[in-house]
Structures are given as structure tokens and as C-alpha cells.
Amino acid sequence: MRVLITGSTGLLGCALQAQAGADRQLYGVFHPARALPKALRAAQRPADVTSAGAMREVFAWAKPDVVIHAAAIGSVDFAEKNRAQTHAVNVGGTTVVAACCKDFGARLIYISSNAVFDGTQPLYSETDPVSPINYYGELKVAAEQIAATCGVPYAIVRPILLYGWPYPDERGNLVTTWVKALREHQRQSVVDNVYSKPLPAQACAAAVWEIVNRNCSGTYHVAGADHVSLHQFALAVAAAFELDPALIQAVPDSFFPQLAPRPRDTSFDTSKMERDLGLQPVSLTSGLGQMKAGA
Ligand SMILES: NC(=O)c1ccc[n+]([C@@H]2O[C@H](COP(=O)([O-])OP(=O)(O)OC[C@H]3O[C@@H](n4cnc5c(N)ncnc54)[C@H](OP(=O)(O)O)[C@@H]3O)[C@@H](O)[C@H]2O)c1
Q: CA 239, 241, 246, 251: dihedral to nearest 10 degrees?
């Protein structure tokens, strides 16, 4: 099976390559502003996902049976302030990828987000109506619609708060931010009234591959096992990395008025993932332990 991964140097893109079965022929698309990535498993080509011409060339090269569309602008705050650019990538790019899937006969796995929900009624299952409260979430809803109506077999994967070691110079995540700051003995203010079920990127990748391998369609929620406030998450990180928890101060989300609105608790019900994909959610102890060990 030939699989094309967009966003191949991103956190999830790298984890997808690390978790792929040996019989998968992998092709990756990375942002053209980057140098040719090294030490990744997929054959790699640069292309901007918003360019129909460049992406058609990529599809003609990779001849994918399946496309995992993980390229996106992932910063909620950047999206809020840079709406046209984020729309072009997150919605326009999905339109281009979906059209290529149709023309080249590929299945589409679209990577969406927990941000499609307003966070007032956890735990969210796949049948709950979407209700985004920030621009990033609105664009994820729009892109899901494109995936669902473009006329190819599709699945939508909604990961929640991802963590793991990023590819060099790629976007960090809460765990890498906290580990770096605590190692430098910097105090961290972390909100204690926003909740999540943090998810190792490797576990998310494993779920995506089950969806590919089992030919699943429809929507899948993917999350970790522990339902925690971000403050509790930061304390778990300090414990796992043997760093000083006294540097972590609990604050309410109103402490960061400059940030885009965040849903309070979009945590997922993972029973569909467990039943259909045969996967157990990964605990913080296990996920952070593997990260500390370098995986
Ligand atoms: N991280 C999370 O907590 C989380 C949670 C829920 C859902 N998601 C979704 O999961 C997916 C993967 O997330 P991630 O954390 O792996 O994100 P990431 O690390 O930021 O990776 C996204 C990749 O997309 C690339 N990209 C951006 N614009 C592009 C363009 N115009 N053309 C080609 N490539 C482009 C980026 O390249 P550059 O870095 O070079 O720009 C980056 O390599 C995204 O759709 C994200 O919205 C993430």
C-alpha cells in the first residue's frame, strides 16, 4: 500500500512514519520553506498544500492509495490573528488535497481536532454536534465538511492535545515547553480550569494506522487515558522528568486574556477507538515515561 503523508515533518507526521508497518510505501510532503528532511522514513518532496499544481505533481509521483492529510497551521492563537493565511492552508489546502484524492483515486484520512467542540459538555463522542468557539476550530469544521463531501472514501480523525519530541525546529508542545522551562528553573503559570486527555503523538499515529489498516470510515476520537487539568498535566510532566514541581503555579484561564478563546474541556469518550480499533488509551505515566526515555 502506498501512503502519502502531508505535514511529514510535523509532530504527527514524524510519528506516523515511526509507527508505520514495514510493508507500507511511504511518501511525505513537507513545507517548501524547509530543507530536505533527514532521518525520516518516507521519501520526501517539498510542496505547499495550497498549490494545486504542486500537489498534483506530488500525487503523480507518489501514486497514493491512501493520503493522511496532517499538514495544517496548528497554532490556535496564530489562526485567530492571521485568518486569511490560516484559512488558505487549513481549508484551501484541504480542498486541494481532497480534489487530488478524487482525481488520483486515493482514500483520504483527514486529521481534524478536538477544537470542533465548545468544551461545555464532556466527554464528547463522535455523534455529538460540533460547536467551535475559536477560528481554528471553525476551520477544522469546514475542512471536515470538505473531506466528507469530496466524493472519496474518507475517515476523520480528531486527536486531542498531542505531545512528544518534535522534528528539529518544528513547533513545540506543552510538554517540551514545560521541560525546557523547568530545566532552566523558570516559573510556569499553568491553568487549572482547562481540562484535557493528553495524547502521545506516537499513540495518535498508531490509531491512524489502525484506521488505515482496517479500512475504517467515518469519524474517530483519539485521546489519552488520564482526564486532567493542564496544571495536573504540568505536575505529571515535572514528576516524569524529575523536575521541580514548586516552579509550577496554578492560575485560571483569565490569567492569559491575550490568548484566543479556549474550550474548557473537550475531552473525548474513547469507546469507539477502543472498540473499533482495538486500542487502549495511553496513560500519562506511560506516555511521558516513553518520552523521557527518548522515544
Ligand atoms: N498538536 C496538537 O495538540 C493537535 C491536536 C489536535 C489536532 N491537531 C491537528 O493534527 C495535525 C497535525 O498536528 P501537528 O501537531 O503534527 O502539527 P505540526 O507539528 O505543526 O505539523 C504541521 C505540519 O504542516 C506543515 N505545513 C503547514 N503549512 C503548510 C503548507 N502550506 N504546505 C505544506 N506543509 C505545511 C508544517 O510545516 P512548517 O512547520 O514548516 O510550517 C508542519 O510540518 C494538524 O492538522 C493539527 O491541526 C493537532
A: -80
How high is the pLDDT of residue 116? 98
Nearest to 219 by CA among 143, 131, 110: 110
* Atom nearest to 14 CA in ligand 1: 16
Q: Which whole number is the average pLDDT over 113-119?
A: 98
At residue 258, the pLDDT reads 85
pTM attached to this predicted model? 0.98
Domains of the chain as residue ranges with CATH: 2-162+198-222 (3.40.50.720), 174-197+226-267+284-292 (3.90.25.10)
> Strand 162-163 and strand 228-229: pairing?
unpaired
Query: Which residues lie with the beta carbon below 6 Å from any ligand 1 atom?
Result: 7, 9-13, 31, 33-34, 48-50, 70-74, 89, 93, 111, 113-114, 159, 161-162, 170-171, 173
CB-neighbour burial class of residue 96 (10 A; exposed 0-12, middle 13-18, buried 19+): buried
SS3 4: strand
Beta strands in the chain (DSSP E): 2-6, 25-30, 43-46, 66-69, 107-111, 154-159, 162-163, 188-191, 195-196, 199-200, 218-222, 228-229, 248-251
> Under DSSP, is residue 279 helix (H, G, I), strand (E, B) or coil?
coil
For the cut 70, the answer to whether the pLDDT of residue 266 exceeds it is: yes
Nearest CA to ligand 1 atom 12: 70
| DSSP SS3 for 291 | helix
At 295 the pLDDT is 59
Q: Which of 234, 222, 247 is CA-nearest to residue 174?
A: 234
